[in-house]
């Protein structure tokens, strides 16, 4: 009887100490990107208007205590594949990150793959994000971690965003 109680106590302690972040690497964006997600991820899709184009956008995301870790991706329209005009989609997506937070975008927008950090203006909601955006020859890809200062630590945001690697 004492052994059973002791075993149940140890199991209870182990369950209470389970980590909130359970990192796992996944291939996403139709296999074009690999990222480490902090929890089980799910994928949803919808159509999205961006820079005057309609894109079929898929979002693979995981949530941990109010923070969201996501990879969004959309195949480029055939007429833009491999063309400089596709960069306009990346620019529009970068601008939307700032617009969604009511923040002013910088004069010089970050380059493909550069980290983008956006905070909601003071006095508004307590929210921030860390993101990276790429325009490849065939796809638009966004990696983003977002949450409040309490729900998303800079360390967890960087771990997720920096884990994202485009496949050759």
Plain-language structure description:
It comes from Bordetella pseudohinzii. This is Lipoprotein. It is a single chain. By secondary structure, the protein is α+β, with helices and mostly antiparallel strands. The chain has a single domain (21-166), classed as Protein Transport Mog1p, Chain A (3-Layer(aba) Sandwich). Helix content is 23%, strand content 38%. It contains 3 helices and 9 strands, in the order αβββββαβββαβ. It has helices spanning 2-16, 87-100, 154-163, and strands at residues 24-28, 33-37, 42-50, 53-64, 67-75, 116-119, 128-135, 139-147, 165-166. The strands form 2 sheets. It has a 6-stranded antiparallel β-sheet with strand order 3-4-5-8-7-6, sandwiched between helices. Strand 4 (53-64) and strand 5 (67-75) form a beta hairpin. The chain is globular. The model is unreliable at 1-18 (pLDDT under 50).
How would you briefly describe this protein structure?
The protein has 168 residues and is an alpha+beta fold. The protein has helices spanning 2-16, 87-100, 154-163; strands at residues 24-28, 33-37, 42-50, 53-64, 67-75, 116-119, 128-135, 139-147, 165-166.
In terms of topology, how is this protein built?
Elements: H1 2-16, E1 24-28, E2 33-37, E3 42-50, E4 53-64, E5 67-75, H2 87-100, E6 116-119, E7 128-135, E8 139-147, H3 154-163, E9 165-166
Antiparallel strand pairs: 1-2, 2-9, 3-4, 4-5, 5-8, 6-7, 7-8
Protein name: Lipoprotein
Query: Could you give the distance between the termini?
Result: 59 Å
Number of domains: 1
What value does the average pLDDT take? 89
Q: Which fold does the CATH topology refer to? A: Protein Transport Mog1p, Chain A
| Proportion of strand residues | 35-45%
Note the overall shape: globular
Organism: Bordetella pseudohinzii
Protein name: Lipoprotein
């Amino acid at each position: 009887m004492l052994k059973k109680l002791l075993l149940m106590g140890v199991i209870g302690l182990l369950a209470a100490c389970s980590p909130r972040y359970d990192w796992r690497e996944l291939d996403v964006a139709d296999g074009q990107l690999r990222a480490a997600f902090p929890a089980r991820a799910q994928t949803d899709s919808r159509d999205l208007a961006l820079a005057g184009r309609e894109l079929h956008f898929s979002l693979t995301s995981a949530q941990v205590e109010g923070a969201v870790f996501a990879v969004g991706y959309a195949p480029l329209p055939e007429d833009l594949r491999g063309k400089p005009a596709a960069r306009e989609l990346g620019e529009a997506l970068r601008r939307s990150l700032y617009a969604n937070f009511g923040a002013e975008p910088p004069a010089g927008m970050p380059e493909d793959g550069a980290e983008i950090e956006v905070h909601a203006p003071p006095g508004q909601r307590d929210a921030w994000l860390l993101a990276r955006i790429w325009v490849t020859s065939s796809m638009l890809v966004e990696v983003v971690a977002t949450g409040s200062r309490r729900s998303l630590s800079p360390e967890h945001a960087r771990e997720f965003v920096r884990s994202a690697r485009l496949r050759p």
